[in-house]
């Protein structure tokens, strides 16, 4: 996907005026938040489980080198192969090398955000290998030539009519009377087209929700079963995973799985939870002849020991973006790269640089909802604030913002002047807007009034009202 994070403001403006997108967001977002709320209410120990999940990830990160080495040793012991890749270039080259080793012409893929980060599809196609997305959402996006707008529901931004229009444009043999009334019709059409792809593929590529050090297993969760077909039918299975996906034991993985589905879709468990350990053994009825794990760093190790290490706890459930008012208004494509929403606002500047992604940590109301619903309690607002600080320190923020902050800081350090200035400003605004009720434009407030009116202040300042309340008087 082409990186457009520097154009977040333009992207967001376009998204806010996209009627189809706004319709999709209005329909889909409440479904995710409502399902999660019900799932959490039905599990009394959910808050305790969040603490357990946080502690598992913290312990693993504190001993990451040991658990990665243990995991790799157990993969090799089970007959698999582990490939350590520091950069995206190394990972792409390794995947291509494995595919070429068996003369692969077609590769089926299960949904994998790390493959989006690496640009695996484009790289394979460039070298004459056809990648076929098998996840329903990724499949429609591939034929539309679009990137995912959500990390678990990649076609979050599409409506039913978008699916039907795309299928009719690409599947030219569809009868005119074929009806697409609901998701089952769409799923049936995609399955019909994909079945032959599954059978013809030489290599299957999946992501990994977790890597288990104790057994050398990779774990994927899906609701469509495409992940199982992708990793069992082809001759080679390649699991792509970033280094922070490792967890110590099967028990730890199970605890995190209890958090994952409830936080993501509101299910107790996803329909398919699949553990892969090595290649097919003599007594196995199916499975790949070769099992490869491509372990990717791509900037993660640089986060260790920094203010952003806690971001590596993320289990990619998307609860933060499902509850984010900014994501809910703009959708995922506005963020301009692979990872949208609050988690993307922290992770993306780490991976591509705050110079390109500085708008993202600023695209937050700091309402704190993302942290309150995160299953592993990642302090996302705190880390977005750290990125804002770094942007300011490097003189990357606009001069008007820097100047405004300097003026504000001068007053904030002088309480008497601050109180005097706020009283004067409220009085002036009240006088100017006495007959208007709200301002449609104001000098130095265009960023606010461009999209909404500014109500005329009523009464005194907050500090005056607070002081009066403390004295027991009516403000």
TrEMBL record:
<dbReference type="InterPro" id="IPR004452">
    <property type="entry name" value="LutB/LldF"/>
</dbReference>
<dbReference type="Pfam" id="PF02589">
    <property type="entry name" value="LUD_dom"/>
</dbReference>
<dbReference type="InterPro" id="IPR024185">
    <property type="entry name" value="FTHF_cligase-like_sf"/>
</dbReference>
<keyword id="KW-0004">4Fe-4S</keyword>
<dbReference type="Pfam" id="PF13183">
    <property type="entry name" value="Fer4_8"/>
</dbReference>
<dbReference type="GO" id="GO:0051539">
    <property type="term" value="F:4 iron, 4 sulfur cluster binding"/>
</dbReference>
<dbReference type="InterPro" id="IPR017900">
    <property type="entry name" value="4Fe4S_Fe_S_CS"/>
</dbReference>
<dbReference type="GO" id="GO:0006089">
    <property type="term" value="P:lactate metabolic process"/>
</dbReference>
<keyword id="KW-0408">Iron</keyword>
<dbReference type="InterPro" id="IPR009051">
    <property type="entry name" value="Helical_ferredxn"/>
</dbReference>
<keyword id="KW-0249">Electron transport</keyword>
<keyword id="KW-0813">Transport</keyword>
<keyword id="KW-0411">Iron-sulfur</keyword>
<dbReference type="GO" id="GO:0046872">
    <property type="term" value="F:metal ion binding"/>
</dbReference>
<keyword id="KW-0479">Metal-binding</keyword>
<keyword id="KW-0677">Repeat</keyword>
<feature type="domain" description="4Fe-4S ferredoxin-type">
    <location>
        <begin position="304"/>
        <end position="335"/>
    </location>
</feature>
<dbReference type="InterPro" id="IPR037171">
    <property type="entry name" value="NagB/RpiA_transferase-like"/>
</dbReference>
<protein>
    <submittedName>
        <fullName>L-lactate dehydrogenase complex protein LldF</fullName>
    </submittedName>
</protein>
<dbReference type="InterPro" id="IPR003741">
    <property type="entry name" value="LUD_dom"/>
</dbReference>
<dbReference type="InterPro" id="IPR017896">
    <property type="entry name" value="4Fe4S_Fe-S-bd"/>
</dbReference>
């Amino acid at each position: 996907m082409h990186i457009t994070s520097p154009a977040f403001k333009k992207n967001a403006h376009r998204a806010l005026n996209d009627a189809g997108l706004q319709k999709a967001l209005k329909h889909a977002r409440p479904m995710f938040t409502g399902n999660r709320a019900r799932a959490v209410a039905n599990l009394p120990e959910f808050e305790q489980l969040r603490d357990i999940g946080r502690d598992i990830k913290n312990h693993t990160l504190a001993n990451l080198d040991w658990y990665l080495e243990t995991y790799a040793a157990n993969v090799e012991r089970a007959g698999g192969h582990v490939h350590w890749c520091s950069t995206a270039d190394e990972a792409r080259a390794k995947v291509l090398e494995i595919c070429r080793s068996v003369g692969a012409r077609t590769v089926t893929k299960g949904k994998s955000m790390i493959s989006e980060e690496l640009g695996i599809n484009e790289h394979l196609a460039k070298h004459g290998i056809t990648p076929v997305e098998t996840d329903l959402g990724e499949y429609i996006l591939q034929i539309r030539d679009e990137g995912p707008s959500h990390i678990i529901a990649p076609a979050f931004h599409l409506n039913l009519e978008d699916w039907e229009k795309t299928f009719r444009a690409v599947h030219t043999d569809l009868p005119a009377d074929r009806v697409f009334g609901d998701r089952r019709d769409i799923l049936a059409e995609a399955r019909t087209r994909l079945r032959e792809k599954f059978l013809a593929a030489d290599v299957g590529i999946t992501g990994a929700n977790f890597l288990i050090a104790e057994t050398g297993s990779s774990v994927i969760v899906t609701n469509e079963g495409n992940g199982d077909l992708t990793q069992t039918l082809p001759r080679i299975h390649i699991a792509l995973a970033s280094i922070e996906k490792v967890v110590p034991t099967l028990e730890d993985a199970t605890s995190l799985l209890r958090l994952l589905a409830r936080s993501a879709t509101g299910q107790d468990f996803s329909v398919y939870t699949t553990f892969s350990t090595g290649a097919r053994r003599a007594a196995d009825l199916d499975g790949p002849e070769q099992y490869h794990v491509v372990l990717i760093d791509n900037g993660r190790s640089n986060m260790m020991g920094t203010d952003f290490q806690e971001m590596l706890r993320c289990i990619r459930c998307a609860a933060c973006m499902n509850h984010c008012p900014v994501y809910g208004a703009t959708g995922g494509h506005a963020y301009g790269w692979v990872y949208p929403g609050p988690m993307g606002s922290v992770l993306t500047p780490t991976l591509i640089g705050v110079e390109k992604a500085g708008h993202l940590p600023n695209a937050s109301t700091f309402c704190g909802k993302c942290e309150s619903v995160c299953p592993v309690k990642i302090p996302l607002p705190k880390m977005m604030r750290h990125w804002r600080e770094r942007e300011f320190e490097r003189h990357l923020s606009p001069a008007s913002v820097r100047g405004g902050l300097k003026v504000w800081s001068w007053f904030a350090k002088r309480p008497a002047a601050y109180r005097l200035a706020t009283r004067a400003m409220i009085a002036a605004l009240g006088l100017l807007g006495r007959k208007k009720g709200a301002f449609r434009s104001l000098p130095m407030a265009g960023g606010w009034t461009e999209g909404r009116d500014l109500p005329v202040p009523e009464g005194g300042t907050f500090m005056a009202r607070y002081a009066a309340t403390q004295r027991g008087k009516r403000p």
